[in-house]
Amino acid sequence: MSAARRIEARVRVQRGDGKPSPLLVGAHRALRQSVRVQKGLDDKAPVELTPEHPPGDEGTLSIERDKRFVLDMQAEAQTDLDLPIKELRLKKHSSEARILALALATIRVDRHARKMDVRLEREVLTMDRIDGRLVWALGGESMALWVDRETYRPARLYVGPGVLDDDAWTVKMTYHDDKPGRGWFPHRMVVSKNEEVVMIVHALEVTLHKR
Q: How far, in Å, CA of 105 to CA of 146, rounded?
């Protein structure tokens, strides 16, 4: 986590679980069938469509690790998330901002957890698999962290009820060497409340600074 002290990113923020509507699914299915006919392909032959830009509203993400987390949305109607890390425990900030800041803007999650009157146990609970990769699960009922077994990148952070608010919050972080963040910073962050996705942050461009 200390590899990049400052991060600046252009992002798209998607509210909700991001599942396509049945109408959109049907339109894509019809388009694939049309492409098959035009190319004279077998009905069951796979056809890949050119990927579209991630959905959601555009914004910028600025992080100074252990100092500040800022998500600035371009749409005027949306509330910006601006959180000094020293105020992580204060409930005047939204739970979405606090879980994202804890996952992305802190170098030592366990140290900041103690300031929030919760302890992240350092013992390994079990080995799990996320996005096809093996991860170690550490922690307990109040807070848990899943860490990639080979790269030690945090893959998921869970904060139980009674820490941020009365709900359980999770951030899942996905990395890829060929996507924005180049494997050092997640290109996709999924925030869930009580196991239901409430926000997805897609990174479009990421600039990493060591100092």
A: 16
CA–CA distances in Å: residue 29 to residues 17, 39, 42, 44 = 21, 16, 15, 12
Q: What pLDDT does 41 receive?
A: 61
- Going from the C-alpha of 148 to that of each of 22, 55, 155, 170, the distances in angstroms are 35, 27, 6, 16
What is the DSSP annotation of 97-149?
HHHHHHHHS-S-HHHHHHHTT-----SEEEEEEETTEEEEEEE-SSEEEEEET
Given a cut of 50, whether residue 165 has pLDDT beyond it is: yes
In tens, the pLDDT along 41-62 reads: 666 666 554 445 678 889 999 9
- Give percent of the chain above pLDDT 70: 78
104 near 155, Cβ under 8 Å? Answer: no
- List the beta bridge partners of residue 12: 58, 202
pLDDT at 76: 57
Of the candidate ranges 54-63, 119-128, 132-141, the one whose mean pLDDT is the lowest:
119-128
Residue 25 CA to residue 210 CA, distance in Å, equals: 42
> Measured between alpha carbons, how far is 195 from 198 in angstroms, rounded to an integer?
9
